[in-house]
Amino acid sequence: MRTRTLTLPALAGAGLLLLAGCASDGEAPETSESTASESADPSASAAPVPSEITPGATAEDLAGTSWFGTAEGVAEVTFTLNADGTVDFESFNGQPFDAPTDVWSVDGETFSLTISQLQAPTGEVVDIVFTGTAATGGMELVGDDGAGTQYPMTIAQV
Question: CA-based Rg of the chain, rounded to a whole angstrom?
């Protein structure tokens, strides 16, 4: 059976790359003139920018939508919520991995996402159930592995 490993080191590495990209060896010249640069172009952004977050989404609203986000201590993910309640992971820490037991649902105002077959640092295979307020545009979720460990997750609709 294939499992996905919880990977804090991968997330730490991504954070270091982000910090390295923000560092600069030179000082910015003092000027009162505004100048345009390619990086100022909003279309130059590589990371998805969440659209307006609108709570109150239904299962019908979310079916067929794609999402990008990070679950702290678990993975960076890109996935699609299928109309049949399954989830297709296009990327799980940069690797494709899809299990038919990855599912989602909406019950009232609560969105649930179950990521299955995760290998915990202890070696145990666990399912993590993420829950939060159902919304379009973006969601803040909290995952529970059934043993009391919680994992915050932020996702943006792409």
Answer: 18
pTM: 0.70
Residue 26 within any structural domain of the chain:
no
Range of the domain at 80: 51-103+133-140
Residue 56 is assigned to a structural domain of this protein = yes
pLDDT in tens, 35-61: 333 333 333 334 455 578 999 999 999
Q: In this model, does residue 133 exceed pLDDT 60?
A: yes
Structural domain count of the chain? 1
For the record, the structure tokens of 128 come out as 């993590």
